[in-house]
Amino acid sequence: MEIAQTKKQEEENLMENIARKKRKENSCFGHSKRLLLEGYLLGKRGYPKITKKTELAKIFGCDRKTIYNEMQRGLVEHTKTDLSKVWEYNADYAQLKADWENTARGRKLKIGSDFILCAELKRLIVDENYSPYAVLAEFRLNGWKTETRFCEKTLYNWVNKGDVAGVGRTDLPNKG
Which long-range contacts (CB under 8 A, 24 or more apart) does 44-48 make? Predict the structure, then answer.
């Protein structure tokens, strides 16, 4: 019993330390901070129920708007046993949503939405059995079909990642 109590106390101390760390530039909420926020908002895990955004912002060392945005990200409608609906913050849902939103980060692909180029690459690689080097030689000899330019390595990367619709590693002459 004492081991479980000690472990619970260590977990609470760790979570409080995470919340009280000095704010870094461009810091964001991680899963542990989201669990802590859920604990404060719902009064779970032995935390006092705090719903004021300014108080939570002081605890987490961030701006009130950050708390507001995080609360909006994790807001989920729950159905109680009496079939009434209630909106609550859910840390796991907020984490899933943040992870999904982070997938859109980064540079856009050079091939982008160049469907004409994709169709031509598929025709040459799959139907004509050209290698990426032979595709580039074909484009240089007969002219590029679109404005998008790329090198052999880029084409291999696109094929390996599956960025060219209908073309995979197994479609290459030496099977990748």
Answer: 45/12, 45/15, 46/8, 46/12
